[in-house]
Hints:
Largest sheet: 8 strands, parallel
CATH class: Alpha Beta
Oligomer: single chain
Number of domains: 1
CATH topology: TIM Barrel
Strand content: 15-25%
Order of helices and strands: HEHEHEHEHEHEHEHEH
Structural class: alpha/beta
Distance between the termini: 29 Å
CATH superfamily: Alanine racemase
CATH architecture: Alpha-Beta Barrel
Number of helices: 9
Bound molecules: pyridoxal-5'-phosphate
Radius of gyration: 17 Å
Number of strands: 8
Strand order of the largest sheet: 7-6-5-4-3-2-1-8
Amino acid sequence: MNSDLVPTLERENELIENINDVLSDVEAKKVNEARLVLVSKTKPASDIVASLKTGQLHFGENYTQELVEKAKVLPKEIKWHYIGRLQSNKCKTLAEIPNLWAVETIDGKSKAKKMNDAWAAAGNKNKLNIYVQVNTSEEPNKGGVETVDLEETLAYIMEECHNLNLLGIMTIGSVENSNVVPNPDFLKMGELRKNNEAKLGTKLELSMGMTQDFEHALELGSNNVRVGQKIFGKRAPKNVPN
Ligand SMILES: *Cc1c(COP(=O)(O)O)cnc(C)c1O
């Protein structure tokens, strides 16, 4: 194996312990079925090799180029989640990653259509799992559809985007709210799920909760938590485009 892919024994043991800790928290707090996504952005491929020893397969990345490079050298069993800000001109690149499992950051009808078309054009026969990101905290610089546009966006995807499998809705939530109990962003997500499941006649997952607040997110019904720093340690700030 390429030496870049070989973790030190010390790092491997550290990661296995961290992952097992988070997994027992998930078991203890969840009220629904929930999966853990290991957010490995900015961390070396060797960290992912070490993490695979726990049997976990869902990994999340934010930067398209970094994801492409990691996907190329790492085992194809990995189920990649793209969780970065989605740019139209990156849909094709993402669609060509053979083991891309989900795009969590669809932020409107036009982006949904672009991803839908790129997925088929890349020759994929299965449907691509997606979440629609919601700007629950209504912050001007945050990605995601506004709550008032959510129903229309979800209906559009179900009717017009036949290469996409609508898994549910996702939020990042505001930093301030990550310490508030109950978290207003998570409560809003629960409401949005309930209302839209009834209106659209389909089941919707909630993707919410990160290092700071994943336990609370699970208590409020999350089905998909995205945990980075609690597993891999602090990240150096990264100044590259998506
Ligand atoms: C980075 C990131 C995470 C993980 O954040 P941590 O605080 O490291 O757990 C989760 N979701 C999204 C969308 C992210 O960008």
